[in-house]
Amino acid sequence: MSGSNGRSLGRRTFVLGSAAAAGTAALAGPLATSASAASFGWSDDGSNYVVDTGASLVFKVSKTNGDLTSLAYKGTEYQGYGGKNSHVESGLGTSTVTIAQSGSTILISVTYGTLKHYYAARSGENNVYLWTNKADDSVTATRYIVRVKAGLFLNDEPDSYTYAPTVIESADIFEKSDGQTRAKHYSKLRVMDYNYIGWTTGSVGLWIVRSNHEKASGGPFYRSLLRHQSADGGGLYEILYYGENQTEPERFGLQGPYVIALTDGGAPSSSLYAGTLTTSWADSLGISGYVSASGRGRVAGVGISGRDTAYAYTVGLANSVAQYWGSARSSDGYFSIAGVLPGTYTLTVFKGELAVYTGSVTVTAGATTTLNTIAIASSNDPSNASAIWRINNWDGTPSGFKNADLMTYAHPSDVRAASWTGNVVIGSGTETSSFPCYLWKDVNSGIIVYFKLTAAQAAAAHTLRIGVTTAYANGRPQVVVNDTWTSAVPAAPTQPSTRSLTVGSYRGNNNTFTYSVPASAWLTDTSSYNTLKISVASGSGTTSFLSAGTSIDAIDLLA
Predict the structure, then answer these.
(1) Going along 411-558, which residue ranges are E strands?
(2) Euclidean distance between the first and final Cα of the chain, in Å?
(3) 151, 198, 250, 539: most buried by Cβ count inside 10 Å?
(4) Which residues lie closer than 8 Å to 410 by C-beta, 6 or more apart?
């Protein structure tokens, strides 16, 4: 296999987000057979606690700061690059590190101020189970990074920048000689889209199996760093709170387990996935903040009416303490969300990524809260409103617009992107595919939509709606109709303050701007095209793709 620059990559690598390849995997979960269980145990080399899982994995944890200092699988060292270890955030300072064995489980506990972190090993398994309990914001973010030695897993995917030498934005987005862009941000995936992330050579696989993200922030549609490859080495991430394009306050408490899994090249066992993993063996280990399965509840809904069956629906639960989600069955909207901490939650039903219903549900330990059919009111789905014309359908995403799919794994300047400029004619049949998914003040502000009205339509005032999914630097749409009527500059809604549109994410806060256009603004000649100019207004931002911008969900003129 060769990269586009002609260098031999020599190894096979890919990301797997489901159980599709699990059938070819060596079993790497709680039921894994032991390769040499008699060797299971731990030792102290003076600087590290050394854990032998009794299978093919030996790992070390620093007694000073809780770093993972070694990850040796079948005698090959995988951990570390650039003199750095694997650890919480960018590494903790001097910590209290202890170890204890309880039967077939070894637990290493790390205490750094108010933060507690745990590593667990099970006899005969090639896995490391991790938990992180962050009690406050004394540690700036919540992530774990597995740093992997260079040359072991090579790739040239969107989240790799080994072969992309030119920096084009903020020292973390790169361009290759062929014009394609690369960055650690370009994972393509939302949290709900993957169970694990990593690489394989075909004979060795190294993965992080994500946790259920109950203490994370951002919901099921959040996008964040998952992995990267550079000339120095690779990184795999479990990110629970990251300031970039964040839509919710940080949640605190115990998160996990998430799992570092080594395999013979296949996917990690599905028994490790957040929706299927059981950890009754950890119930008595004394992990701070741990809540066993018996201390959790379930929410089940018999169905959801009023759905548009062309779309997938997701049900989310959220409060200040935890978040959960589940998919609604396509046939009737049935859903079930298990493993929920007791409490009262806001329940939200999403059509695609657009909230179309909100309610409240209370969960108690050891019980199932059963909900009758949830009815989505017709007025809650903006697609149900009668429109003279509509560009794209309302689903809370820019999907369908020009360049929308590419923007989750490439920079807007990427050579594969179609021109960000160009006007749109209603009735052409290409209204949606011709309209750019993003608008920027310094790039394509002033896009014009051409449309005709009947005499009756032109004699009446109409409401124009523009839906957005996020904004950068307070960018928001201002409109001009026929060069005679100009809307006021709308107030900027609450949106994340960090980069978004250039780092693979359109997920902010969905917002609808409405404009009451008077009848006097329309042309009375029914054979002439009316013009709608959409510009980006803001006093913030810099230039080009870092000028003020916004992501579009749908645009329509109501009847």
Answers:
(1) 424-425, 438-440, 447-451, 462-472, 476-481, 485-486, 511-517, 530-537, 549-558
(2) 56
(3) 198
(4) 158, 180, 181, 186, 416, 417, 504
- Which phi and psi angles does 241 have, rounded to 5°? -145, 125
Q: Are 249 and 217 in contact (CB under 8 A)?
A: yes
Contact 278, 529 (CB under 8 A): no
DSSP, res 373: P
Contact status, residue 347 vs residue 341, Cβ threshold 8 Å:
no
481-484, long-range: CB within 8 Å, 24+ apart, which pairs? 481/517, 481/521, 481/522, 481/530, 481/531, 481/532, 481/533, 482/521, 482/522, 482/523, 482/530, 482/531, 483/531, 483/533, 484/520, 484/521
Q: Three-state DSSP class for 433? A: helix
- Residue 186 within a domain: yes
Contacts of 386 (CB under 8 A, 6+ apart): 558, 559
- Strands of the sheet containing 181-183, edge to edge, are 166-169, 173-175, 181-183
Nearest to 528 by CA among 496, 482, 487: 482
Q: 32-46, 167-181, 215-229, 538-552: which range is least confident on average?
A: 32-46
Q: How far is CA 75 from CA 62, 81, 149, 481, 525, in A?
A: 20, 18, 14, 70, 80
Q: Looking at the domain assignment, is residue 3 inside a domain?
A: no
Parent domain of 376: 293-380
**CATH number of domain containing 337:** 2.60.40.1120
Cβ 264 vs Cβ 205: under 8 Å: yes
Question: What single letter denotes the amino acid at residue 233?
Answer: G
Contact 503, 438 (CB under 8 A): no
- Distance between CA atoms of residues 66 and 92, nearest Å: 7
- Tell me which DSSP letter residue 402 carries: B
Q: Which two tokens stand for residue 227?
A: 């992995």
**Cβ neighbours around 549 below 10 Å, total:** 29
Number of structural domains, the chain?
3
Q: How far is CA 356 from the centre of its chain?
A: 21
Q: How many CB atoms lie within 10 A of CB 244?
A: 17
CB atoms within 10 A of CB 285: 17
pLDDT at 443 over 90: yes
Question: Of 256, 118, 146, 145, which Cα lies nearest the Cα of 205?
Answer: 146
Q: How many C-beta neighbours within 10 Å does residue 98 have?
A: 11
Is residue 141 very low, low, confident or very high in pLDDT (cuts 50, 70, 90)? Answer: confident
Q: Is residue 9 part of a domain?
A: no
Q: The tokens of 438 are what?
A: 């993003």
Is 301 contained in some domain? yes
pTM assigned to the model: 0.92
Of 330, 357, 380, which one is at a domain's C-terminal end? 380
Beta pairing partners, 31: none
Q: Are residues 141 and 203 in the same domain?
A: yes
117-126, 162-171, 237-246, range with greatest mean pLDDT: 117-126
Angstrom distance (rounded) from CA 111 to CA 287 = 11
**235 and 331 assigned to the same domain:** no
Are 260 and 142 a contacting pair, CB within 8 Å? no
Are residues 539 and 444 part of one domain? yes
Full DSSP string of 509-524: --EEEEEEE-GGGS-S
